[in-house]
Design brief:
The protein is built from 9 helices and no strands. It is mainly alpha-helical.
């Protein structure tokens, strides 16, 4: 097994664990209050980090990759941005057709009356997003170990709220602990599956990275800008601490980016 295989496997498995931990925190109940009181700040840090990774690292490297491997025409120059937009719009389509509208980190009570079908549809819709999380980790890791690590962090920062949200919806549909764990484990496995499938499919096909990376980046951009940021703003009002947490996420990216640049060069 190559070093890139193990990096992708470990990153995918750890990201999957975040989904599972998000479901586990619902049991026992004494941990729920603490987890749900801090989840806004986790989301804010994650949103800032994801936006910074997308705009400062992924997009420039994607454009560079397209220019190096066959850009040069107007269509070639626009292709990575078209794929980015396609990933963004695909997420919009999936989240608002396959899955019902729900909020990351939102506390859901059983008396809200969510149907079992809606809860399972949410798991299916989120599963498509988590699959692309895995693709993103693998595609970035194929370019460089440092970029793979940054993307892994961007992904893992919103994994816990994802598991918490889906677990809450399953509970609200009247299901028990075993179903919650099955749902969050499924989400985690789709992340690992996305990472491993891309790695296997992409071996010897270097051009696959330049298509997958901007498409997956569009999914990440949607989650950060259209899911997390509005959710943070809606529920946090004028809280300066959440704003600071988002800026800390951006600062964390620059600190790690600088450290990794020094380490790998």
């Amino acid at each position: 097994m190559t070093s890139s295989f193990w990096q992708i496997f470990i990153f995918g498995a750890l990201a999957a664990l975040g989904n599972i931990l998000g479901g586990l925190v619902l049991f026992p109940s004494k941990f729920q209050t603490y987890a749900k009181s801090s989840v806004r700040h986790i989301l804010a840090v994650g949103a800032g980090f994801m936006l910074a990774v997308t705009f400062i690292e992924i997009l420039p490297k994607t454009i560079e990759l397209w220019h190096r491997e066959g850009g040069g025409s107007e269509i070639g120059d626009a292709a990575p941005m078209i794929l980015l937009l396609a990933g963004y719009l695909l997420t919009q389509l999936l989240e608002h057709t396959i899955a019902p509208h729900f909020h990351l980190g939102e506390e859901v009570h059983a008396d809200d009356g969510i149907s079992v079908h809606s809860a399972y549809a949410a798991v299916a819709g989120m599963g498509i997003h988590t699959f692309f999380d895995g693709v993103m980790i693998a595609a970035a890791s194929e370019l460089s170990a440092g970029l793979g690590f940054l993307v892994f962090l961007a992904v893992v920062l919103h994994k816990f709220p994802e598991g918490l949200t889906v677990g809450s919806m399953v509970l609200a549909a009247g299901k028990g602990r075993s179903t919650v764990m099955m749902a969050t484990i499924t989400l985690g496995l789709t992340t690992l599956l996305g990472a491993m499938l891309f790695h296997i499919a992409g071996e010897g096909v270097s051009s696959l990275v330049r298509y997958a990376l901007p498409l997956a980046a569009g999914v990440t951009l949607y989650v950060a800008a259209s899911d997390l940021v509005p959710e943070i703003n809606h529920h946090s009002g004028r809280s300066v601490f959440v704003t600071i947490a988002m800026f800390l996420g951006v600062g964390l990216f620059f600190a790690l980016d600088l450290a990794l640049s020094s380490a790998f060069h």
